[in-house]
Design goal:
This protein is an alpha+beta fold. Helix content is about 35%, strand content about 25%. It has helices spanning about 15-30, 45-50, 55-60, 80-90, 135-150, 165-180, 190-200, 225-245, 290, 305-315, 340-350, 360-370, 380-385, 410; strands at about 35, 45, 65, 75, 100-110, 120-130, 160-165, 245-250, 260-270, 280-285, 300-305, 325-330, 355, 375-380, 390-395, 400-405. It has an eight-stranded mixed sheet. β15 and β16 form a beta hairpin. α1 packs across α10. It is elongated, with a radius of gyration of 27 Å. The termini are far apart. The structure holds adenosine monophosphate. Adenosine monophosphate binds near residues 79, 124, 256, 257 and 280.
């Protein structure tokens, strides 16, 4: 038997329903915030991601690269931001408006060690805003992330925020982190010894070393911020306070991708046993990426959420599961020729409908009907056919009423009540 590739998911059942539900809700929310949908190819040229300044593990170690038949070097997208920047530049979208706000839902590919909430193929929902740098844009994105958290009723989920400062601040911070950890070389794990050489800031993400005693006094990025970066950070924070957003300042947050500067943020749940899968989304500002990709000098801010992780949290919280329901399930215990016409009538009236295909014991049919999670079950039996009515069971109250065909649609829509 051929199995699915390691680290991938087959979507079916409740999780597939959740996927569609989450997608729809995120569509609605981003429309509310006036973002436009964008979609770019699944693969891009290798060079788009493998840039001189990008030393993250994601790009260095985890990309799926291949040559096509014409020997072009291509990469399956490990993330969407660089690809959207490329589309923004290539299609000159910056000529359309001063601020361009995009959202996406797309698959990413990273050759990671699969574990809970970490896959090799995974969905991300995300947003990218391109404009001149303005603290209100950063604040609006954090507000949007908070709005999503609240819309999905994610309990115990907090936004962590930090600032890495501008290019110079970030370089200074990198140097300070290098100097600090260089003193503890012997105590760092094997990977962090490598990170010390290539990219010291990544040490701050290490789940092994950040438990160690010497980690506690590591310098924070706030200590190396210029006055200007500090003020920018404060302005963002002030807006968040005014909006009543649930955040905390997290001095060790650096995020795993190198193009970020200034504001970085992450949404974290705190479900026991979820470990890293508690990080459901994150992002930040990237002032140099568009320019680095030969575009104009326009900054960007964005964040991405892991859809599999969001669904895991929702399933864990038992939230929204009952909302995925059928309006009506028809049980026909006669010769099964009534429900086709009836289902057409219901569909024409925008009601979601399902029905039985075989005649079985009523109890079995009823049990099967409940699996579709319908609001109502319409029962068609001999008496109903003979006397021209439907028996309708409300699955919430488990009460049953007789309704005539002429009143049926109004009854199902809550516009008619049986006396
Ligand atoms: P990143 O693009 O690495 O900044 O990640 C943004 C979000 O995507 C994370 O907070 C996760 O929720 C999700 N994510 C990142 N990598 C994976 C993965 N390998 N599998 C599933 N979700 C992921």
């Amino acid at each position: 038997m051929i199995l699915r590739p390691k680290g991938t998911i087959d979507w079916f059942g409740n999780r597939a329903k959740m996927l569609k539900f989450v997608e729809k809700k995120l569509d609605e929310i981003t429309n509310l915030f006036n973002f436009e949908y964008i979609e770019t190819p699944v693969f891009e040229y290798f060079e788009l991601f493998h840039r001189e300044n990008e030393n993250s593990d994601m790009v260095k170690k985890e990309t799926y690269n291949f040559l096509d038949k014409s020997e072009r070097k291509l990469t399956l997208k490990p993330e969407q931001t660089a690809s959207i920047c490329r589309a923004f530049i290539e299609n000159k979208l910056y000529t359309e408006q001063d601020i361009k706000k995009f959202y996406y839902l797309a698959k990413n590919y990273r050759y990671e060690r699969p574990q809970k909430g970490r896959y090799r193929e995974f969905y991300q929902f995300g947003v990218e805003v391109f404009s001149n740098k303005h603290y209100l844009i950063d604040a609006q994105l954090i507000f949007l992330l908070d709005y999503i958290i609240k819309s999905f009723k994610l309990k115990n989920t907090k936004i962590h925020i930090n600032s890495l400062g501008d290019n110079q601040d970030k370089k200074n911070y990198n140097n300070r982190v290098f100097e600090y950890f260089n003193e503890y070389k012997e105590d760092l794990c094997y990977d962090c010894n490598q990170r010390l050489k290539d990219n010291p800031l990544r040490i701050l993400d290490c789940k092994l070393d950040n438990e160690k005693e010497f980690f506690k006094n590591c310098p924070t990025s706030i200590q190396t911020l210029s006055e200007e970066s500090k003020q920018y950070f404060e302005k963002v924070i002030n807006v968040l306070d005014k909006l009543g957003i649930n955040y905390c300042i997290d001095n060790f947050l650096v995020r795993g991708i190198d193009y970020y500067n200034n504001i970085v943020f992450e949404a974290r749940s705190s479900i026991e046993g979820f470990n890293n899968a508690n990080v459901i989304g994150g992002g930040g500002r990237y002032d140099n990426l568009v320019k680095e990709l030969d575009g104009p000098d326009i900054g960007g801010v964005g964040f991405a959420m892991g859809i599999e992780r969001l669904i895991d949290v929702l399933l864990h919280n038992n939230e929204f599961i009952n909302q995925i329901e059928t309006d009506v399930y028809i049980i026909d215990t006669t010769n099964l020729d009534k429900h086709i016409a009836l289902s057409k009538l219901l569909l024409d009236n925008n009601l979601k409908v399902d029905y039985n295909l075989e005649n079985k014991k009523f109890q079995t049919l009823f049990k099967n009907a409940l699996k579709s999670n319908p609001k109502y079950i319409i029962i068609i039996g001999d008496d109903e056919v003979l006397n021209n009515y439907y028996s309708i069971k409300n699955t919430k109250t488990m009460t049953q009423e007789k309704v005539l065909e002429k009143d049926l649609i109004r009854y199902l829509k809550g516009e008619y009540y049986v006396d």
